[in-house]
Known about the structure:
By secondary structure, the chain is an alpha+beta fold. It has helices at residues 3-18, 25-35, 40-55, and strands at residues 61-62, 68-74, 83-91, 98-99, 105-108, 112-114, 119-124, 130-133, 136-138, 141-143, 149-151, 154-156, 159-167. It has a 6-stranded antiparallel sheet. A 5-stranded antiparallel sheet has the order 4-5-12-8-9, with no helix packed on it. Strands 6-11 form a two-stranded antiparallel sheet. A hairpin with an 8-residue loop joins strand 2 and strand 3 (83-91). The radius of gyration is 15 Å and the shape is globular. InterPro entries: PnbB (IPR032345).
Amino acid sequence: MGSRDELIQCSIPFLREVKDMTPGAEMERWLNQTYGEGSQLYQDLARLIKRGVEEGWAANQEVDGPNYRRSRIMDPTPETFQFSITAVYMNSTDPRRFKDEDDHDVLRGQYHGHPYGELNLVVPLDKGAELKGLQGWQGPGWTAPDPGSRHYPEVRGGAVIALFYLPAGRISYDFAAPS
């Protein structure tokens, strides 16, 4: 079995467990307590998605240059309880970065919405790298944006891979960004 198939197979028991939960702050806390950085699931998924980026089957399509890439790993299927699996690579050392309120270099991605929410595994590649979730900055662990939420993905402190699961594969880039 290749590492892509291994990642999918590793995801299925997790998706079976969370398929009837609603993304949001409460679920995010539960994910970080139950499947945080020290858990076997986190370790396995992080190892496999890093391998996917290295092997070129994950986060291999440039969105806006080599420091902002993504790819759909699997479309929603009955096997994945109608979740899609996607990976994003973002690196805040990109020349298009900006300084945040704490003087960190931040790379901002495409504004988008989550009609049904999102479960997002955050895998820093650089020590101290973080992804901004709706509850604040997240290093190794999870974010779980609410259904109907909209945001810019933002990374600071270096490179991060985000492995995310979308209920029904739904994500929308059809919203106007706030001015």
